[in-house]
Design brief:
Number of helices: 16
Strand order of the largest sheet: 1-3-4-8-9-7-6-5-2
Largest sheet: 9 strands, mixed
Helix content: 25-40%
Strand content: 15-25%
Number of strands: 15
Distance between the termini: 55 Å
Length: 434
């Protein structure tokens, strides 16, 4: 393990000031800020995680931008268990230890969904932009942070759950390779940090399902049960609601319903095979504007490109790429128009390019940001993803089931065996999808 001061080998960090040197506000000001925190807030100098997040920023930039050896076409078995650790000395003189787990594996996952190392670092660890804290109503006690562009989510978790995820990381990667359009959230990095005098913290970095969030009107966290699953709505409408709130809602997907129900079934059955339960489906709902409903031929071609290619270094199209796709659209227009009849689903269109798509359950991805977790129905856009899948059905859950049976009079609660949980989850989502 090597020790180096911040900025000694990362050119971009040279000349930056030490964040800890900024003067904190008075105790009264800090109290008022903490009292007023709701929704999403900046992590400023008064925040109790301010120093830690700035240290995390330096560690992430180091492992992402200074170690090309983690870029591999196919990670080995050793890469899944690899641990990269480095000690840094901050400008204030504090030494902190930063650890990245299975770095090569997560590089491959990021590349598969079109995120380069530079894009990842620019989004997750920009030099001068603050992180955002998401004020969650989760009972886990975890801290939730967003990158400044709200594209990526960081969540603290217990070492026990981190180790569970590491134990089935190869299976997680294989499921994504087998079903590239899986709705299970894509985890892009796994880190820990230890600052002297503070407890070691473990972090997961994942896609934000609710991205972009500027037009989302409703948000739900659905498990498929009702006991203890009610959340009082907020006047501001930003609160994540639960199953009891979802009772009269439906996911109206039109001709994409069959694809969605099948993928939910594939993902839930995978969870059952892992022996996990208590996972959730996040659902964000946004009404489509008239311009959203207009799909050009170029949108279709770009959607096909996105759907069939997941190893591109970037999903952002350059002008040359757009010109190339425009030419392709003109060449293929007659064939695509024939395929794009009102009687054929968007998924069927992909068979024009790749007849074997049914085995991978691919769909025609929309030409928008966060396309893997975005599904358009006739009137609404849905942001959908499966999260929180690290809970094994072990002794603690069995004991919890006993007490919940008493508490809820054997009602419909979340602590049940993985197979039953998966079956109920599938049935609930299917029933609420039209």
């Amino acid at each position: 393990m090597s020790v180096s001061p911040i900025g000694s080998d990362i050119e971009e960090n040279q000349g930056t000031s030490d964040p800890t040197e900024k003067r904190k506000s008075s105790a009264w000001t800090r109290f008022k800020k903490k009292w007023a925190r709701k929704g999403i807030v900046d992590v400023d100098v008064d925040h109790h995680r301010y120093e830690m997040l700035n240290c995390m920023r330096d560690g992430i930039r180091e492992v992402t931008l200074q170690h090309p050896e983690f870029n591999k076409s196919e990670p080995s078995a050793d890469d899944h268990t690899d641990v990269f650790e480095k000690a840094f000395v901050s400008p204030s003189g504090k030494c902190f230890h930063f650890t990245s787990y299975a770095s090569a594996t997560f590089v491959m996952i990021r590349q598969a969904i079109g995120i380069s190392d530079q894009q990842y670092a620019n989004s997750l660890a920009p030099l001068h932009l603050p992180y955002l804290e998401f004020m969650s109503n989760s009972k886990s006690g975890a801290d939730f942070f967003l990158s400044n562009d709200k594209c990526l989510f960081m969540k603290t978790d217990k070492e026990y759950y981190i180790n569970i995820f590491r134990s089935f990381l190869p299976d997680y990667l294989h499921h994504f390779q087998q079903y590239p359009h899986s709705l299970i959230v894509k985890i892009m990095g796994l880190y820990s940090i230890k600052i002297p005098g503070q407890k070691k913290l473990f972090f997961l970095v994942m896609q934000s399902i609710f991205y972009p969030d500027n037009r989302i009107e409703k948000r739900f966290d659905v498990k498929g049960c009702f006991a203890g699953r009610y959340q009082k709505p907020s006047d501001k409408g930003a609160r994540v609601l639960k199953d009891q709130n979802f009772t009269n809602e439906s996911i109206d997907l039109g001709d994409q319903r069959d694809w969605f129900v099948k993928q939910i079934k594939l993902d839930a059955e995978f969870m059952s095979e892992l022996g996990v339960q208590d996972y959730s489906l996040l659902v964000g709902i946004q009404f489509l504007s008239p311009s959203d409903k207009k799909e050009s031929l170029l949108d279709v071609v770009i959607g096909v490109q996105k759907s069939l290619k997941h190893n591109s270094p970037s999903n952002d199209l350059s002008n040359n790429q757009e010109d190339s796709l425009s030419q392709k659209a003109e060449c293929d227009s007659d064939a695509i128009k024939k395929e794009n009849s009102p009687h054929k689903s968007p998924t069927h269109m992909l068979s024009f390019y790749k007849p074997s798509i049914k085995t991978m359950n691919l769909r025609l991805l929309p030409n928008c940001k966060n396309s893997l977790h975005t599904i358009d129905g006739p009137e609404q856009r849905y942001y959908i993803g499966v999260i929180d899948f690290f809970t094994l059905y072990e002794c603690r859950q069995r004991t919890g089931r006993f007490w919940k049976n008493i508490k809820y009079c054997f009602g419909d609660h979340s602590t049940i065996p993985p197979k039953k949980y998966a079956d109920r989850f599938i049935a609930f989502i299917t029933e609420h999808t039209t």
